[in-house]
């Protein structure tokens, strides 16, 4: 009955309809864009999300090598909003100078470009670190429901410029707002939805995330996470800031184990709500013409090399999940995995290309060829860059085989990712890797332009 009503409404509005895979959809050449962005989620946690697997991955493409070149919340989000690296946006960290909301130029973003192309746009959830006033709505956004103080059961939001306090579970409320936006968008008008969920970020001051009450404890008894790099015994080949960290004691290990468990439990509600969102797209007849992207801003280290958090260039920090479904392109490769080196700025160019909007100034590559069966020339390396926050300032590069980092003090790390996937042996001082070190140094010099403020190459 719902579909008949929808078709009748379209007819009254003078819009034609097409039926794709048994679903009725508005006849439009411009796809809707839905970006679902979690916060601090590692690439290897998708096993906790069967809904993402069934509703997105099974109909789309999973990109197993998706990275954040500056692994921190605000730089990552600034890059996704603009399609530019941190060295172009100038947002290297979460706080000024050179970071946070105050350092971000919001007059030219994917929102302004899609808005100019006729899209209805919405930001629901986390915008940028430091956005707190709430009365300011950045250009390009038609629907604005942005955290001014994120949280799980206690949080505040700017609802079209009005500050509101909430005690509901934020993941559920944000999803409800996203579904309301979808359903309130006139049939035939394309939309861009940036649903930026707080989970599985810690609550604050290194406190664990807070799962929804009925999900709390669902991973009690989960096996502890102990890869070879966990609480690494010998860090003599690591940079000074890692060498200064003492081996973790039992209390630190227990704290990290709990943090990991609560991160995983907080993703249960994310997965449940994504299923609801996909149902809303299907029921409204829009799913067949919507690109749905599930990703995170940056990864998170669970004790590898005695580190917990992000900011560093180790795989667990820079590598994040990415799953994309867009039926017109992905039906022929549904359920596949792609191993190309993808970085976050590629999302923005992809959205712009599909929407027919300007992509001028964007530094990423369009993923459109990789969503189907068309071959594409692709990058073989990408930059690593960071301005001091927790970890020292660095520049570096990663390709398909090696990861290289040079820190402010000149210390270098080089890892052979095929022979040493856990990054246990720093090969920078190994004579047998001299050629690879020179090559990766040169690559880093080529990609890291300009360098972070105050950084000077020493090699």
Can you describe this structure?
There is one protein chain. This protein has 459 residues and is an alpha/beta fold. The protein folds into two domains: 29-380, Alkaline Phosphatase, subunit A (3-Layer(aba) Sandwich), CATH 3.40.720.10; 392-447, no CATH class. Helices cover 27% and strands 20% of the residues. It contains twelve helices and 21 strands. The chain has helices at residues 2-12, 50-55, 73-82, 86-89, 110-116, 170-184, 240-243, 250-283, 315-318, 327-330, 345-355, 434-447, and strands at 17-20, 23-26, 32-38, 61-63, 66-67, 120-125, 143-149, 155-159, 162-166, 191-196, 290-296, 301-302, 308-309, 319-320, 322-325, 336-338, 342-343, 381-386, 394-399, 402-407, 412-416. A ten-stranded mixed sheet has the order 9-8-7-6-10-3-11-15-4-16, sandwiched between helices. The protein has a four-stranded antiparallel sheet with strand order 18-19-20-21, covered by helices on one side. The chain has a three-stranded mixed sheet with strand order 14-5-17. Strand 1 and strand 2 form a beta hairpin. Helix 3 packs parallel to helix 11 (345-355) and helix 6 (170-184) packs parallel to helix 8 (250-283). The longest helix is centred in the middle third of the chain and has 34 residues, at 250-283. The protein is globular. Residues 1-27 have low confidence and may be disordered.
């Amino acid at each position: 009955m719902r579909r008949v009503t929808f078709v009748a409404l379209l007819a009254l509005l003078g819009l034609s309809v097409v039926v794709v895979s048994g679903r009725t959809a508005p006849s439009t050449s411009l796809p809707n864009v839905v970006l679902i962005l979690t916060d601090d989620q590692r690439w290897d946690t998708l096993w906790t999300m069967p809904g993402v697997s069934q509703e997105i991955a099974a109909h789309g493409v999973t990109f197993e090598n998706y990275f954040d070149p500056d692994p921190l919340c605000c730089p990552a989000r600034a890059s996704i909003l603009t399609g530019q690296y941190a060295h172009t946006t100038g947002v290297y960290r979460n706080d000024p100078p050179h970071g946070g909301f105050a350092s971000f130029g919001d007059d030219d973003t994917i929102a302004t470009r899609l808005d100019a192309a006729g899209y209805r746009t919405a930001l629901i959830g986390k915008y940028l670190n430091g956005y707190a006033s709430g009365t300011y709505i950045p250009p390009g956004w038609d629907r604005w429901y942005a955290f001014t103080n994120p949280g799980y059961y206690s949080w505040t939001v700017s609802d079209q410029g009005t500050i509101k306090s909430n005690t509901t579970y934020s993941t559920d409320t944000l999803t409800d707002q996203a579904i309301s936006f979808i359903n309130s968008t006139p049939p035939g008008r394309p939309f861009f939805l940036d649903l930026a969920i707080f989970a599985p970020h810690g609550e604050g001051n290194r406190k664990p995330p807070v799962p929804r009450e009925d999900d709390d404890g669902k991973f009690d008894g989960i096996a502890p996470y102990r890869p070879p790099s966990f609480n690494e015994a010998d860090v003599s080949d690591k940079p000074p800031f890692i060498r200064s960290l003492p081996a973790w004691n039992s209390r630190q290990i227990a704290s990290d184990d709990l943090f990991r468990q609560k991160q995983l439990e907080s993703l249960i509600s994310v997965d449940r709500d994504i299923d609801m969102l996909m149902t809303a797209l299907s029921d409204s007849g829009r799913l067949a013409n919507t690109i749905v992207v599930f990703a995170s801003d940056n990864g998170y280290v669970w004790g590898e090399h005695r580190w917990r958090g992000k900011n560093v260039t180790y795989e667990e920090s820079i590598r994040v999940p990415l799953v994309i479904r867009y039926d017109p392109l992905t039906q022929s490769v549904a359920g596949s995995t792609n191993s190309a080196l993808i970085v976050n700025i590629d999302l923005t160019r992809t959205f712009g290309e599909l929407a027919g909007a300007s992509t001028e100034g964007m530094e990423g590559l369009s993923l459109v060829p990789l969503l189907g069966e068309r071959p594409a020339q692709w990058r073989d390396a990408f930059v690593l860059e960071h301005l001091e926050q927790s970890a020292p300032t660095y520049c570096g590069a990663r390709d398909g085989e090696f990861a290289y980092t040079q820190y402010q003090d000149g210390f270098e790390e080089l890892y052979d990712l095929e022979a040493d996937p856990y990054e246990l042996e720093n090969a920078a001082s190994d004579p047998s890797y001299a050629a690879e070190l020179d090559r990766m140094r040169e690559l880093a010099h080529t990609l890291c332009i300009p360098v972070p403020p105050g950084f000077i190459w020493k090699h």
